[in-house]
């Protein structure tokens, strides 16, 4: 028993904490992905309009934005550990609450609360990983975490579709609640504290000043814009693909689930490449090599659907190619943006996530409007194409500003 205790203590930060965080993150992803094949059944179960189906994702994203302003500064002052542990408990209770929903409004409210898990994971959990490890190790560890977590969009729809053949969709949320409880217990016993608590009071003025300082940083602004635009094609696909493939395409929930495998499998493959084979993932040369994959995928979306408008497989192929390109550089973009200044990282991460999630939530609604009101897949995919070309422009500016900053620091060191 003493040896087991010493082993747990020695490896709690390097092994058990990442495992608990992965389970929490994995379960949060599953809360969207596992129910997506049955979202049309949820809507019909509550006698609601099918147009509300994508709102399950957009409200989840809105929930992920709601507490960012609070959690980042709060974790900078009272510590990362109590904030993340509380978030895991809130998510677990919200999953249990879904079991008692009797209307679409109640279901969407529960989804909103479940979405706050994004606040805790991205603003506190990921920042703890970045603070506990050096740059290269943190980037590769985040790639590993992302690879494992993104199995959820692959197996989630498959498991959800299979389970809904013989059980009610609410049972899925009961399973998620149990998984969330296990993750909460894991964090409770293994999460390290990476900051020293300060006597600085939690005041509105101090919080506002911290956020102002973050948004005055040009590297941060360019980085967060690049990340936000990179998310748009993927998140809009997650939200609207059930309507495209099931409601309009005639696929069964199981067939829909299999169609998501190449999309999220591409992200996992990209993260494996980064974690196992890339020596310096922050190298500009490597970052630029990922861009052709993204642009090829986006062009395939438009060209394929124009040439063969009745073959929706072009949407799968194009989105998969784009996903591979994004997966190669996303951990690096997050790291570069997070460490764009010397301000408290909880506040920086909160600022980043506020912009990214609000952009995603808004663009999901725009994508939904384009699909339902302007003629289907072509207008819908044009949004992704425009976002992709803007990513290239913003990425060039981001790398230039980082290079200028590093050159200036080198000159100052020489002069001193």
From TrEMBL:
One of its GO terms (molecular function) is sodium:proton antiporter activity. Keywords: Membrane, Transmembrane, Transmembrane helix. Residues 17-416 form the Major facilitator superfamily (MFS) profile domain. SUPFAM superfamilies: MFS general substrate transporter. It is a multi-pass membrane protein. It holds the Pfam family MFS_1. GO terms for cellular component: plasma membrane. Signal peptide: none annotated. The chain crosses the membrane at residues 12-32, 52-71, 83-102, 108-129, 141-163, 169-189, 219-244, 256-274, 286-306, 312-338, 350-372, 378-399. It is found in: Endomembrane system. Its main location: membrane. InterPro entries: MFS, MFS_dom, MFS_trans_sf, Sugar_transporter_CS. GO terms for biological process: xenobiotic detoxification by transmembrane export across the plasma membrane. NCBIfam families: PRK15403.1 (NF011932). This is Multidrug efflux MFS transporter MdtM. It comes from Limnobaculum xujianqingii. The gene is mdtM.
């Amino acid at each position: 028993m003493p040896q087991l205790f010493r082993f747990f203590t020695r490896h709690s930060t390097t092994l058990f904490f990442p495992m608990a965080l992965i389970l929490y993150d994995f379960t949060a992803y599953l809360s969207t992905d596992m129910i997506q094949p049955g979202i049309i059944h949820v809507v019909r179960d509550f006698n609601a309009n099918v147009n509300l189906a994508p709102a399950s994702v957009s409200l989840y994203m809105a929930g992920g934005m709601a507490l960012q302003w609070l959690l980042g500064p709060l974790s900078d002052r009272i510590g990362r550990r109590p904030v993340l542990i509380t978030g895991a408990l809130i998510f677990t209770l919200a999953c249990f609450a879904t079991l008692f929903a009797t209307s679409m409004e109640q279901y969407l409210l529960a989804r909103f609360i479940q979405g706050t898990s994004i606040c805790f994971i991205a603003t506190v959990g990921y920042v703890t990983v970045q603070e506990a490890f050096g740059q290269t190790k943190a980037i590769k560890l985040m790639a590993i975490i992302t690879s494992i977590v993104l199995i959820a969009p692959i197996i989630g729809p498959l498991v959800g579709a299979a389970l809904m053949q013989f059980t009610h969709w609410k049972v899925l949320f009961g399973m998620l609640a149990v998984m969330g409880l296990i993750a909460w217990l894991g964090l409770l016993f293994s999460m390290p504290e990476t900051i020293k608590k300060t006597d600085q009071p939690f005041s509105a003025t101090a919080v506002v000043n911290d956020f102002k300082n973050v948004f005055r940083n040009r590297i941060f602004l360019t980085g967060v814009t690049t990340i936000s635009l990179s998310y748009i094609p993927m998140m809009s696909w997650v939200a609207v693909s059930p309507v495209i493939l099931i409601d309009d395409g005639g696929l069964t929930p199981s067939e829909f689930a299999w169609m998501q495998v190449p999309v999220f499998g591409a992200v996992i493959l990209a993260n494996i490449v980064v974690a196992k084979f890339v020596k310096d993932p922050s190298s500009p040369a490597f970052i630029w090599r990922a861009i052709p994959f993204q642009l090829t995928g986006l062009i395939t979306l438009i060209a394929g659907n124009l040439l063969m408008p009745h073959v929706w497989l072009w949407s799968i192929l194009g989105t998969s190619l784009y996903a591979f390109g994004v997966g190669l550089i996303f951990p690096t973009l997050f790291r570069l943006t997070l460490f764009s200044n010397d301000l408290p990282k909880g506040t920086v991460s909160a600022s980043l996530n506020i912009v990214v999630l609000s952009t995603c939530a808004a663009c999901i609604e725009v994508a939904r409007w384009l699909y339902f009101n302007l003629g289907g897949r072509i207008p819908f995919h044009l949004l992704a194409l425009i976002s992709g070309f803007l990513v290239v422009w913003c990425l060039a500016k981001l790398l230039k500003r980082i290079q200028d900053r590093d050159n200036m620091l080198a000159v100052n060191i020489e002069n001193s």
